[in-house]
Amino acid sequence: MSFNSRQYEWGDVTVVLGGRDITGIRGIKYTEKGEKEALFAKGRYPHSIQTGNITIEGEITVLQSELIALEKAGNGSVLGLNVDGVVSYGNPSAGDAMTTDRIVGISFTESPKEMKQGDKNMEISIPFIALAVKPNA
Questions:
Q1: Shortest CA distance to 57 belongs to which of 112, 123, 132, 111?
Q2: Fewer CB within 10 A of the terminal residue: the chain, N end or C end?
Q3: What does the radius of gyration of the chain's CA atoms come to, in whole angstroms?
Q4: Where are the domains of the chain?
Q5: Looking at the domain that runs over 10-135, which CATH code has it been given?
Q6: Apex CA 123: angle with CA 76 and CA 113, to 5°?
Q7: Distance from CA of residue 48 to its chain's centroid?
Q8: What are φ and ψ of residue 108, in 5° steps?
């Protein structure tokens, strides 16, 4: 049995939003958060940890051309879009096992644009919320 310790590289990441391969992507981040709080009763120490709602938040960083394509798909704004995303890590041609996360119900919460002196391109980070992350889906 051989052990492969090769780590994924940025070139091994593929992101598909709404069925479209996003080639102008510069970054993606998504987090699953769970509400938790200590339950206190008699004494100084908690008796248990109670759990509440789970939320999915993230952001996708794209080039201006990708933002324009997303805006066209959303009839002029990304705020009206509701898409699923697929994030795949790995390169099967290099012998990697593929790892895939399906992000269900992505809805963008802001549509920022920014450039400053000296920039050679516009890079936009668009925050989103989602319904769920399904690993290996």
A1: 132
A2: N
A3: 19
A4: 10-135
A5: 2.30.110.20
A6: 45
A7: 32
A8: -75, 140
User: Hey, what are 3's tokens?
Assistant: 């052990």
Angle at 128 between CA 78 and CA 121, to 5 degrees: 60
Match 């009763």 to its residue by tokens: 41
d(CA 37, CA 45): 12
Cα(137)–Cα(3) distance, integer angstroms: 25
* Strand (E) or helix (H) holding 125: strand 123-130
Partners of 32 in the beta sheet? 56
User: CA–CA separation, 113 vs 110, rounded Å?
Assistant: 10
C-alpha dihedral (9, 12, 13, 16), degrees to nearest 10: 170
Q: What percent of the chain has pLDDT over 90?
A: 77
pLDDT digits (tens, 9 = 90+) for 26-67: 999 999 999 999 999 999 999 999 999 999 999 999 999 999
- Single-letter amino acid code for the residue at 17: L
